[in-house]
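[job 0412] stage=fold_complex status=start
inputs:
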Amino acid sequence: MAAWLVRRLAASIAIVWAVVTLTFIIIHLAHGSPFLPEQGQDIDPATLDRLRHDWGLDRPLPDQYALYLRNLARGDLGLSFALHRPVAAALAEALPNTFTLAFTALILDFAFGLALGVYQAARERRFGDIALGNVALFVNSMPTFWLGLVLLLVFAQRLGWFPVGGPRDPVLCPRVDSLACVADFAWHLTLPALTLGLVGAAGTARFQRAAMLEVVRQDFVRTARAKGLRERRVLLVHALRNALLPLITLFGLTFPFLLTGAVLVEWVFAWPGMGRLAVTAILQRDYPIVTAAALVASLMVVLGNLLADALYGVADPRIRVRAT
Amino acid sequence: MNVWNWLAVGGAAMLALVVVAEIRRRTTTGATGRRFFRHPAAAPALFVLAFFATVALAAPLVAPYRPYQQIDIEQLADHAPSARFLLGTDPYSRDVWSRLAYGARISLGIGAIAMLVAITTGVVVGGVAGYFRRWVDATLMRLVDVGLAMPRMFMLLMVVALWEHVPLAVLVLLIGLTGWFGTSRLVRAEVLSVREREFVAAARALGAQPSRVIFRHVLPNAAAPIIVSAALGIGNVMLLEAGLSFLGMGVPSPAPSWGNMIADGWPKMAVAPWCATFPGLAISLVVMALNAVGDALRDALDPRKETA
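[job 0412] stage=fold_complex status=done
writing structure:
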């Protein structure tokens, strides 16, 4: 187990390093620089040179890369050009927002998805199953950001039940410190989390239905029914427990998906998370933030996979990993 | 919309029906075709795809206006859907239905071409890795690991934003070249099992070149998962294109794509919801149809795993 973990961790670090390097190369091979004057703006070339020198952008690329890696190894992500603050500070502010959003969406995703999948499997090939199956397929096929726009239009703009964007009320709740403000935060969170969660839930339901149907045909389920157990108990206790295993793989895949899917949802709902930070940074050529965002994103994928593999062992002793 | 446009739309629907009926008649003679059409959504999904493909090809007949034409910027911007403007007009007074029809060319075209690039690359890489094994396999699969961990949307955004004025062809190529990693894993796994079979040994014993063994003997027997992943992949590419265009970094603006139609209509969502709603519905419908066809294909090609 320990040897397996060490190998997986080493591989994970290598993958993250490769993604960061790739990002670094793409950024620096592109034309332009972060300190290009805008049209009509008159800046002394000497000032530009001084800025480039101050930020180390006039040095040869291999030097910049070596310096970046050396700082990274020490946990220093550098300074943001555009925000004039450490990248780590900007990330520390944005990451919790994205995590809250993605985590809430994940809970909605699995809660709705599981319930729907189990219900559909119980009513296999009957009206409820087919109707819900088509609805789920449709929702799963929507562009996430478009669903966000539609929810925004209906529930925020027309009905006025929810706010149109942002993480909290800027006047009443500049920071989340009282119970009322926690409620305000949750209120602001509802629509974006629902957007992200619903699209995912539709996929999870399809997955879960297939897993349930596979289990329901097995002998132990027939035995449970033959014992005279209620159908509800057979499905929810005997079958569901065994049908949860494939869901773990899905978990490893879903979380990174939610984080990247969050890019567009954050954009639509003006949610100050990683996605928004990253897209803005790309537009402003804020290299340190862009690289850091790529680092975080690939880290999430790698950790998600690692977590899923580890959870497998916990959930099913038969496939507990051996250190081979 | 004049009479001729309506006739053309009706003709497109008729043609799509005929196409589906013909496919059904020809394929249900075999067991695979029958399994495909046993999926409840297979026939309707094929119809949707055939319909939109026809509309895309016949866009000049189906659409009453040219996609770029600003009909009357003062009087007819944000005009609600009516008999003249089937799906309304957008903030620049362009006919949404006409843009939707022409946009189908771009959106479906990008989906199909990018997927073709992705599948080809994935099949070649997976085939080579699975067939030669050893260091070739190890090297290529580490590359795939990195590719899968790469935040795709983010990388594409970065390239498009930093390189400025990326031509559409390059964008399509990039989408394709960042989308083959999953396929290559799939193909590799399939090739690993097929290459051990007797007929492959026989082909090698007869002195066939590796390329001939891979492409003539191994891959055709590993085709099922490739076809399924292609069907599902087109949908993914379309969603990706929509997302990129929505952020203003996909298909450049005056050209109509379903993604940038949503982007154009978004700021006016409150007063003219039709501009952003219909292209989104079109994307959802087509992606749903592709997913359903993918499911049905899986049922048809792999009878052991039936999903519906």
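[job 0412] summary: Chain B touches chain A at residues 40-41, 142, 145-146, 148-155, 157-159, 161-164, 235, 239, 242-243, 246-247, 259, 262, 266, 269-270, 273, 276-277, 280, 283-285, 287-288, 290-292, 307-308 (CB under 8 Å).
[job 0412] exit 0
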